Amino acid sequence: VKPPAFRYHDPRTLDEMIALLGAYGDDSKVLAGGQSLVQLLNLRLARPAVIVDVNRVAGLRDITEAPDGGLRIGALVRHRELARSHIRTGTRRPRTGATWWTCSSAPPWPPPSTGRAWR
Amino acid sequence: VKSYIGRPVPRVEDERLLRGDGRYVDDITLPGMLHVAILGSPHAHARIRAVDVGEAATVPGVVRVFSGADIRAISEPLRGIPSGWTNHVLAVERVRYVGEPVAAVVAESRYAAEDGRDSIRVDYEPLPAVVDPEDAVTDRVVLHPARETNTLYHRRFTFGDVEGAFAAAGRVVRLECRWGRTSGNPIETGGCICRWDSHDELMTVWTNMQAANFLAPMVAAQLGLPAERVRIRRPDTGGSFGAKVTVWKYVALVGLLARQVHDRALKFVEDRVEHLRASSSHGPDRRYEAEAAVDAVGRVTALRVKCLDDLGAYSERRPGMAVKPLTGLSGCYEIPALEYDIRCVVTNKCPQGAYRGFGIHAHNFVVERLMDTVAGELGLDPVDVRLRNFIPPERFPYVLPTRMARYDSGDYPKLLRHLCDVAGYARLRAWQAQERGKGRLIGIGVATTVEIGGYFDNALYAALELGPAGPIPEQVRVGLAADGHVDVHVGYGSEGQGQDTIVAQLVAHVLQLDPEQVRVHHHDSGDVPNSFGTGGSRMAVALAGALSDALAGLRGQVLGHAGRLLDRSPAELELDEQRAVVRARPEIGVDLKRIASQASAPIEAQGTWPGPELRGEAFPLSYLTAACAAHLVVVEVLPTTGEVRFLDYHIADDCGTVLNPRIVDGMTQGAVAQGIGQALYEQYLYDEEGQLLSGSWMDYLVPTACEVPATKKSRIVTPSPYTAFGVKGTGESAMNTTPAAVANAVTDALKDVGFAANSLPIRPDAIWASVRPVGPRMSRRP
């Protein structure tokens, strides 16, 4: 349950990050949320020589409206941040957050036909 | 007089644990503590040619490295029943399942221990793996050459005139079932810390092992120590469900290593992968052939069940789970002739341990699927078939034809009718017909069970020809402290069942004081005279019995002292609101604090619950109580995905007098979750080489809150005539019932396509394939 030794980098800019990933190639793994990688490290199923932690890289964590009405979601945006965001993507569309919540986390709503809720 | 029996008192255990103030074995750090990492076998079956630990020993931080050869020099093979079917705690000569411990590293940190483990070189000669139990039966490859066969246990039990009943039967209903291999998967994995004190010659063990006191002598024997040289301490435990009984093999391993590394504590805690593949806690893994002799009105006159149980590689926990069904062979039904043919084989898989239900849960699935199959073949309603076969209420106490259990009391027809009323069964059937007309695949499933409680396995020992086990009592000590509190000294461990709350309620009830005046003290092994602890739905029965005994003694002493202080006869006195008062004039009295502080001798008493009686019969009684439960499930099957959704879930139970409905409901809901896992999601799947395919929680699917519906619970109460307060053991009933109820509902939903959910888990791909011809087409290929 403890990872083997690895080298750790936490670049601050996109250029720095790209340079590190370019230099180490397949010997490196990107650490973002860590939800999968950290488990694999702890069980020693993944053994990268280098971990590139991208959490401090500027410019990857924004939610912005694109000029064409689309939405640009940065690679480091957490599900929670998106769910709580209030950006509207157009007058006839629901709030982004509400949409995301419905798409990602909703429990299977019970069909109401038995006449009572099961929960 | 205030009654504390039946009150939904919030659990006294919870606040501390929910605040994060629990102290689990992995939270304990002792001065100078070392860490152990275990190297598991990558092969399901292989000869070990050589283990090279040379490089590992040079890794910084590594203290010592052990292999099977080191262990063989200092200990016997792991104890098992029957003997001769186990390996050493580190494999010697052969490995027989993936993950079997081969070597262990002791190091200054877990990091260093795992680095050391990575440097061990083992030379294996792979052998053909036996994965299919049908293949194991042929003895094509024998796992334990000294035994000459893979069949560890085979016996046929016949009770009554089975042949005659089948010959006379108007109809024989047959069924083949499979019960998938699953396990309890507690959120805290197994672990221990062992410290050998060479000055005191004492092994101190901190562990979350279930039934620790009971197993302490076995651990001592494995370590080559007298029982009094091993002291087991129990920190908080995060669940077990039987899975932590086999933690004892880690205690044996780490204890042996600790004796080689004097005066430093050694810690080992399983990671999840180790727990899934090598904890020896897998549950039953069975193939069944069952048949019922049925008369024209749907009464079952004889039942034949043939079971092939895949025990995995070793007999670490004996085939007890395979013989326990003898204590509930015909479920809730009066079936005069019974036959049970049980064959247990070894295969190259993780050994079985214990899992909630202890094997009777798998058997009950077969009985309940069979009842629905009888209903289907005769065109009867499954509820009617059950009502026709139930043991009638006037037949209690009912001794099973196996004579291995006596059901104490019950009213099964009343319970099932109550369930149908609460759920609105007739309305549901009408609504189902209407919705089916619209094309929805709606199914309604009913299942019932008896849950026998008040363990101990006398019958199982007899069935396994091990001689009488002897009763396993539960003892407690109680005392009135000078501050007016009541101290209760217990030896049981607690995996989360809430028995400290039950103790507080029972004391409050008998002594008429506030539950907050009760302090429960947990003791190390050996300190409380005789305590088995949790297992076999035993705690409520055992504690009600032991505390009634102890508190009768304590109450007598309190009233005696109060009588002297008040100059009254104790017979004139009673206890009320932390005082002893004159019954006729309650304003005259003396409080408990004063009684305790002026007593000339300690006010204390010991109480014993003796356990089920031993009688001079071939099969002595194993269990005292028989609770009953009935489940009614409404599901919808989605033809496009094969998914099963729960629309409604009703449970009615009768577990005698309920001490705390909140606790009973909580245990029931947990067992429903495990039952749904068994029915729809969980399975240890092995490939043909014996590699575990579902070796992480990514693949071994424990249901989450999203997959488990809130259930609607209600009950009737038929007190037990044999126990204090009329309580019955409960907590496992939903393990017996949920898989069958879900399978019956899915079968009902898919009756038009003829899909029978006889194989668990019911996989969505199997459902999908069965409905595919009638379901909507997803895409059309050119």
User: What's the assembly state of these chains?
Assistant: heterodimer
Give, in spatial order, the strands making up the sheet with the most strands of chain A: 1-3-2
**Unreliable spans of chain A:** 105-119
State the end-to-end CA separation of chain B.
80 Å
Give a quick account of the main beta sheet of chain B: strands, pairing sense, barrel closure: 7 strands, mixed
Structural class estimated from helices and strands of chain A:
alpha/beta
How far from one another are the termini of chain A? 37 Å
Structure write-up:
- The complex is a heterodimer of chains A (119) and B (782).
- With 119 residues, chain A is an alpha/beta fold.
- In chain A, 6% of the residues are buried.
- The longest helix of chain A has 11 residues, at 14-24.
- In chain A, the strands form two sheets. A three-stranded parallel β-sheet of chain A has the order 1-3-2, with helices on one face. Chain A has a two-stranded antiparallel sheet with strand order 4-5.
- Chain A is built from four helices and five strands.
- The radius of gyration of chain A is 20 Å and the shape is globular.
- Chain B is an alpha+beta fold.
- Helices cover 29% and strands 24% of the residues of chain B.
- Chain B is built from 21 helices and 28 strands.
- Chain B is globular.
- The chains are: A alpha/beta (119), B alpha+beta (782).
Comma- or semicolon-separated keywords:
heterodimer; A: 119 residues; alpha/beta; three-stranded parallel β-sheet; two-stranded antiparallel ribbon; 4 helices; 26% helix; disordered C terminus; B: 782 residues; alpha+beta; seven-stranded mixed β-sheet; five-stranded mixed β-sheet; 21 helices; 29% helix; globular
